[in-house]
Design a protein that fits this description.
heterodimer; A: 485 residues; 20 helices; B: 47% helix
């Protein structure tokens, strides 16, 4: 039996406390009114310079861009006449440049410079108010999806009757235990969105929808009630499988036959079908819908690749940690080698999907699709391309070597880079649509990472103490104990 | 000078593995082993050095990547930078996504083919090469270990007969 060392427990609590302080600080310092924003912008001379430059650029590009963004122009037109500009502005945050272009075009005709300035301030205010929420949302989603990925990996190993991995089943079960608190937190954040506590999802705002016929056309799918029902069903299904598989796995330890193993085999196969459908829809709902004007077909796979590689990395790192303390007697370098091969393979798989999505859109250059990447390349250049280095170039060069895949310190080092890289990946998916150019990895974002990391460590290692770390009567456990590659 | 070798035949790979370990422990030099299929762990038991063909392949892949990059940079960017459907041909990086499929395929092509050719050259395999199997049965169901004769010949023969061999022959090699 594993005992949760008090030192690690202290670390987990310290991380959670630091995280709460960071998150609290970011909520506390978020601007409340337009006047606050004006002060911030005045103080931030760098931003002013950048803005002036952008405006100049927009002016030059305005004539051709105007036709390309007719849709957005309509949205903004409606906003100018309406009362609630903040929400409507958020609707087109992801089309930031176009938004400004079209605004400028209209401004020349109908509005004076003052109204334009006011309009810009409200726009920035909504972005800055989104920032602390978005930081929490990205981290909450990231850690929940890691545990979901570990669960999917566990199900794959069961359904495939893998002979190498049963000695790692308890580690995977432990990591998947975070799914319950993690899913609850994400669900509460989604409920908070529907209840208008935050505005990460612009389509949840009735004032925006009233002015935006693109979202109106999607409201049969994108509406608060259906959205929450879907989320509840998905999370309920995942948690149900997790609890059921865990119960059977423990029952198999004391069983006299393999009936619990067979139950888990069938449940895993059924779960994988459920998982791939719900995972795809989940990625449209929770991630793609922050950009309700944009869509991509392989997005679900892309999100899946991102969190499965993170999950395998976390499994490897937790296994190495427990092994170093002497708890995993039968885990040898061949098991670690196999996990490292999965880290390598899924990293390449992620890159394949990232590039396929990017290149198809870049190549055809259709305006309503390309805005997604235009926004990211112009305003998130370093994170957008930096994550390709962290998630592809680095792991490929390090983990291609067979000998390196057996060295704990190499796996841990590559794992840390991969995990940071995939955090940046989720950051890149959520932030451009919610905070736009106002992004910054500051107290709020780091605080959220620390908080959820602390919670993750606490929940996972608590779960690991609940059962022996070796699945005793698994029919494949003998093979797994003697696995060597 | 006579150049004698002993051919020891086995009909089971487990017995062969044990025999290899015994032979190594007795410090007899194994010239070669002929098997009808790959025997897992035989190279380790014989103490053969690990292959470096994967390192070759990696380097060939880098060559392929360089060839693809240089080729397309010259053709598409420097030699005749036409506007083809609005693609930006001002610099390589600007139009790079369009070149990645070629870069990838060339990398794989060079890595795979040059590695295979390296394998053929290093293991001396080519069409019309005369086969070198000392006993036809080794391609079907027998395992043959060839050991150089040094010292007492009859003692060696009896040593190998005790390792579970089905046949032990002393051969004059030319």
């Amino acid at each position: 039996m594993y005992t949760f060392s008090s030192r690690l427990k202290t670390i987990a609590f310290v991380l959670m406390i630091l995280g709460v302080l960071g998150i609290g600080y970011s909520f506390f310092t978020a601007p409340k009114t337009v006047e606050d924003v004006e002060k911030i912008l005045a103080a931030d001379s760098h931003h002013n310079g950048g803005h002036a430059e952008a405006a100049h650029h927009d002016e030059a590009a305005a004539p051709e861009a105007h036709t390309a963004v007719k849709e957005e122009s309509h949205a903004v037109e409606g906003v100018n006449g309406g009362h609630d500009t903040i929400h409507a502005e958020t609707a087109v945050v992801n089309h930031d440049n176009h938004n400004e272009i079209s605004h400028e075009a209209h401004g020349a005709e109908a509005h004076d410079a003052h109204a334009e300035h006011e309009h810009h301030l409200k726009h920035v205010l909504s972005q800055l108010q989104n920032k602390p929420w978005a930081g929490v949302y990205v981290a909450a989603l990231f850690f929940m999806l890691i545990s979901l990925g570990a669960l999917a990996f566990f199900a794959i190993q069961n359904a495939a009757q893998a002979g190498w991995s049963p000695v790692l089943f308890r580690v995977m079960e432990g990591i998947s235990s975070y799914l319950i608190p993690g899913a609850v937190i994400v669900f509460l954040l989604l409920v908070a969105g529907v209840l208008q506590f935050h505005h990460l999802f612009v389509w949840m705002d009735p004032d925006v929808v009233a002015e935006d016929h693109l979202i109106q056309a999607k409201s049969g799918y994108l509406n608060g009630a259906f959205f929450l029902i879907r989320a509840a069903i998905f999370m309920g299904g995942w948690i149900f499988y997790r609890q059921y598989a865990r119960k059977n796995s423990l029952a198999q330890d004391d069983a006299t036959d393999n009936s619990f193993y067979k139950k888990n085999f069938k449940a895993s196969a059924a779960f994988l079908v459920f998982f791939i459908v719900t995972e795809s829809i989940m990625s449209w709902d929770w991630i793609m819908s922050v950009d309700p004007h944009w869509y991509s077909t392989l997005f679900g796979w892309y999100v899946f690749a991102s969190f499965i590689v993170s999950a395998v990395t976390v499994i490897a790192m937790v296994a190495i940690y427990l092994k170093s303390l002497g708890y995993l007697e039968y885990v040898n370098t061949s098991h670690i080698h196999d996990l490292a091969k999965f880290m390598f393979g899924f990293s390449v798989f992620w890159t394949y999907l990232w590039f396929s999505q990017f290149m198809l859109i870049w190549y055809a250059d259709i305006p309503e699709e390309i805005v997604y990447f235009k926004m990211r390349i112009e305003n998130y250049n370093l994170p957008f391309f930096g994550m390709v280095v962290m998630n592809f170039v680095f792991p490929v060069l390090i983990l291609i070597n067979t000998d390196f895949k057996r060295l704990s310190w190499v796996i841990v080092m590559a794992g840390i880079v991969i995990l940071f890289g995939h955090y940046i990946d989720f950051f890149n998916m959520i932030m451009p649509a919610t905070v736009g150019e106002q992004w910054f990895i500051g107290a709020g974002e780091i605080g959220a990472i620390l908080f959820f990391l602390g919670l993750f460590i606490f929940v996972v290692f608590t779960a690991l103490t609940k059962a022996p770390l070796l699945a005793k009567r698994n029919p494949l456990i003998e093979e797994s104990k003697h696995f060597h590659y | 000078m006579s150049n004698k070798v002993i051919h020891v035949l086995y009909n089971d790979d487990d017995i062969l593995m044990d025999a290899v370990k015994q032979t190594r422990a007795a410090h007899h030099h194994i010239e070669e082993i002929y098997t009808p299929f790959p025997v897992h762990g035989l190279d380790k038991a014989m103490g053969l050095a690990p292959t470096r063909i994967a390192i070759c392949s990696f380097l060939y892949g880098l060559v392929g990547l360089s060839v693809a990059t240089a080729m397309m940079n010259f053709i598409m960017i420097h030699d005749w930078p036409q506007d083809i459907g609005g693609k930006p041909s001002f610099s390589y990086i600007q139009n790079m996504p369009a070149f990645v499929p070629v870069m990838f395929e060339m990398t794989v092509f060079f890595a795979a083919h040059l590695m295979v050719i390296t394998f053929y050259m290093r293991s001396k395999l080519w069409p019309f090469k005369s086969a070198e199997n000392p006993d036809l049965r080794t391609t079907d169901d027998h395992f043959l270990m060839e050991v150089a004769v040094s010292g007492d010949e009859s003692q060696l023969v009896s040593f190998f007969e005790n390792t579970g061999a089905v046949e032990v022959k002393v051969i004059e090699k030319h």
